[in-house]
């Protein structure tokens, strides 16, 4: 049963306007689209389970040059979850420095959750071993592509850049065997340089997100 | 008119799917050097290679637009207004039509660049095939709108994206339809020459009709608001059921193959002993291959291996390999990259007219040894390096002649002839 609260009573509010009975973390989660994000992460987890060790050989009736492990594509869904989860549903709230730190931590948490959802899919496939580093690279890279929509306060379009990139990579980036350098996310292995570039890009998008408060 | 376009470009995201359609079509247009530019049917099917990427974008943007119209702040425009349905229809149309126009213009431009004045099979079948492709744009916009009317804008896009990718897989040649049979979304493109084939017009007409009708069905239901929340009503469930039933049942009901064979002989011929003929559309590409054949024939003639020289060498087309074992040999398919000389020799001498080598049962091992020996011999005549695949040895002119005579009779298990002395 819901506990009765009196919002008008100043005694029920803390100095900074947060209801004392609502923990700060819960309040933070409450002003973000956590349900949609959690739902999409659950869908990604289900896809990881169903497609374990599987490969995609064709898309839309179009046979790919080289099969691509499913687990390399799931990070796209997880990244959309991160983009949507990072969007705040509030407007015109104060934005002190500690809120910026909290945003950075929130993005990191979402990215960790997305990675955790995808990692169980790591393993052998018909075209080779998918490494943990490759999945982390893909999760971070797709988040970098999904976040611009959130930053311009349009989280409903988080899917656009990751999906366009993956479509183009699958259609134009695959060669027999392997892939073009720019279609790196379709390779089961990874190189240190790819991880470095992706990590730097993720850090940059994280800093922008932390400093510039996106809301609807 | 200009203001109307500007207004919709500002208010809707659907029209911007045309940018993705243009980008993908241009990338397809320059992919692998567009080898068969000049073939009408190939041009149309080549640009179908990019449809699988455009469909989800159209569906997802259409879904977001429909969902935005259904939000509590905007739903008075479509749910309570007398002609509110027009809002959804207009949004879906703005998602489909600009992309379809871009796709059409790209195909027409490619046909113009390829100087396709008189396509094989005529313009009507080309127009019908293009119309069938464009009808898929309309269908995916309707599908997106249908999904968008049930979900919030944030979720609608990604759900429509996933749904359209799944349906694109199921409703093309990889899914419910038998390979080569009727597929509700039509073919998914081709990269090899299409000479010798034409579309099945019945399949194209059925595809256009079924996509148009089911798109209309998907556009019909208005969402219901129960206690302030969206809920699928009877109309929604009925529309989904009718559409699913039509799309699942049709591939089993429509007979025939989606592509029909039209045997045709190449008409651009040159030289003699042998006369080499290619299709006029491929003359641009055929030069190096014809030179290679001429080099092989000259070498065979100079060394007395006249049994290797037919009267005529013709380019193959789909489902037709022009070789009869007597006077005619196949050149294979003219492609952008010429095959290696060893592969070309195999193509020229391969007895494709014999059931023993074209059935599912593999030919006897003697055949492979003999074929390898012919390749070794001919490669030696043109002084090119060749590592025998199955232990073939160089043959004398008489040995090659006896082998050719045996293959002419389809005696493919004939003993390997006497090797030539060093």
Give a structural overview.
- The complex is a heterodimer of chains A (216) and B (422).
- Chain A is mainly α.
- Chain A contains seven helices and four strands; from the N terminus they run ααββααββααα.
- The two termini of chain A are 31 Å apart.
- By secondary structure, chain B is an alpha/beta fold.
- In chain B, 53% of the residues lie in helices and 7% in strands.
- Chain B has 14 helices and eight strands.
- Chain B has helices spanning 2-11, 17-29, 40-47, 51-70, 85-113, 123-148, 153-170, 201-219, 234-253, 283-302, 341-349, 355-358, 365-381, 397-408; strands at 197-199, 224-226, 229-231, 259-261, 268-270, 275-278, 312-315, 328-332.
- In chain B, the strands form three sheets. A four-stranded mixed β-sheet of chain B has the order 5-6-7-8. Chain B has a two-stranded antiparallel ribbon with strand order 1-4.
- Chain B is elongated and about 90 Å long.
- The chains are: A mainly alpha (216), B alpha/beta (422).
Q: Nutshell version of this structure?
A:
The complex is a heterodimer of chains A (216) and B (422). Chain A has 216 residues and is mainly alpha-helical.
Report the structural category of chain A: mainly alpha
Secondary-structure element sequence of chain A? HHEEHHEEHHH
Q: Quick one: how many beta strands of chain B?
A: 8
Structural class determined from secondary elements of chain B: alpha/beta
- Treating each run of at least 4 consecutive H or I residues as one helix, how many helices of chain B? 14
Write down how many β-strands of chain A occur, each being a DSSP E stretch of 2 or more residues.
4
Strand content of chain A: 5-15%
Over all CA atoms, what is the radius of gyration of chain A?
20 Å
Rough shape of chain B? elongated
Global morphology of chain A: elongated
The proportion of strand residues of chain B reads 5-15%
Report strand order across the widest sheet of chain A.
1-2
How far the N terminus sits from the C terminus of chain A, by CA atoms, comes to 31 Å
Give the strand order of the largest sheet of chain B, numbering strands 1, 2, ... along the chain.
5-6-7-8
Rg of chain B over CA atoms, rounded to whole Å, is: 28 Å
When the domains of chain A are counted, the total is 1
What composes the largest sheet of chain B?
4 strands, mixed
Tally of helical segments of chain A: 7
Question: How many separate structural domains of chain B?
Answer: 2
The low-confidence runs of chain A, each spanning 5 or more residues with pLDDT under 50, are 1-13
């Amino acid at each position: 049963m819901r506990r009765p609260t009196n919002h008008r009573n100043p005694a029920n509010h803390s100095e900074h306007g947060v209801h004392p009975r609502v923990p700060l973390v819960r309040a933070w989660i409450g002003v973000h689209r956590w349900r949609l994000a959690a739902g999409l992460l659950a869908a990604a987890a289900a896809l990881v389970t169903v497609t374990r060790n599987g490969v995609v050989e064709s898309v839309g009736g179009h046979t790919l040059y080289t099969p691509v492990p499913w687990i390399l594509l799931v990070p796209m869904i997880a990244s959309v979850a991160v983009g949507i989860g990072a969007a705040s549903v509030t407007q015109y709230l104060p934005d002190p420095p500690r809120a910026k730190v909290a945003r950075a931590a929130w993005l990191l948490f979402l990215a960790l959750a997305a990675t955790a959802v995808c990692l169980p899919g790591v393993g052998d496939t018909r075209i080779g071993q998918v490494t943990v580093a490759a999945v982390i690279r893909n999760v971070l890279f797709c988040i970098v592509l999904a976040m611009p929509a959130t930053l311009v306060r349009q989280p409903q379009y988080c899917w656009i850049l990751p999906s366009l990139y993956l479509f183009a990579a699958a259609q134009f980036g695959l060669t027999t065997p392997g892939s073009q350098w720019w279609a790196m996310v379709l390779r089961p292995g990874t190189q240190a340089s790819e991880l470095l570039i992706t990590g730097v890009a993720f850090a940059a998008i994280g800093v922008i997100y932390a400093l510039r408060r996106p809301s609807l | 008119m200009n203001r109307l376009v500007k207004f919709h470009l500002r208010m809707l995201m659907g029209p911007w799917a045309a940018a993705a359609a243009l980008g993908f079509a241009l990338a397809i247009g320059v992919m692998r050097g567009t080898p068969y530019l000049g073939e009408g049917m190939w041009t149309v099917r080549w640009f179908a290679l990019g449809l699988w990427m455009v469909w989800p974008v159209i569906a997802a943007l259409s879904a977001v637009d429909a969902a935005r119209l259904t939000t509590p702040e905007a739903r008075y425009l479509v749910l309570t207004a007398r002609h509110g349905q027009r809002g959804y229809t207009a949004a879906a149309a703005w998602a489909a039509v600009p992309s379809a126009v871009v796709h059409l213009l790209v195909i027409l431009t490619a046909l113009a660049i390829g100087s396709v004045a008189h396509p094989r099979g005529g313009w009507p079948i080309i127009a019908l095939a293009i119309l069938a492709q464009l009808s898929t744009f309309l269908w995916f916009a309707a599908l997106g709108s249908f999904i968008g009317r049930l979900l919030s804008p944030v979720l609608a896009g990604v759900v429509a994206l996933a749904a359209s990718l799944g349906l694109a897989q199921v409703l093309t040649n990889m899914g419910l339809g038998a390979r080569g049979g009727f597929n509700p979304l039509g073919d998914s493109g081709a990269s090899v020459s299409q000479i010798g084939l034409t579309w099945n017009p019945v399949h194209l007409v059925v595809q256009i009709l079924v996509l148009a009708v089911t798109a209309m069905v998907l556009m019909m239901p208005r969402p219901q608001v129960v206690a302030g929340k969206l809920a699928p009503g009877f109309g929604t469930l009925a529309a989904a059921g009718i559409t699913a039933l039509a799309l699942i049942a049709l591939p089993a009901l429509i007979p025939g193959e989606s592509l029909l064979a039209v045997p045709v002989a190449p008409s651009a011929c040159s030289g003699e002993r042998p006369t080499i003929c290619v299709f006029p559309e491929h003359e641009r590409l055929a030069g190096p291959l014809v030179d290679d054949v001429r080099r092989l024939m000259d070498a065979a003639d100079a060394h007395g291996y006249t049994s290797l020289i037919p009267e005529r060498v013709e380019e193959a087309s789909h489902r037709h390999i022009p070789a009869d074992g007597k006077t005619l040999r196949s050149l294979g398919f003219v492609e952008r990259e010429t095959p290696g000389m060893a592969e070309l020799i195999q193509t020229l001498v391969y007895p494709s007219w014999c059931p023993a080598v074209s059935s599912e049962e593999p030919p006897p091992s003697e055949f492979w040894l003999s074929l390898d020996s012919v390749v070794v011999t001919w490669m030696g005549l043109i002084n090119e390096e060749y590592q025998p695949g199955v232990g073939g040895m160089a043959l004398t002119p008489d040995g090659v002649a006896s082998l050719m005579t045996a293959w002419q009779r389809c005696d493919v298990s004939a003993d390997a002839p006497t090797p030539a002395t060093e």
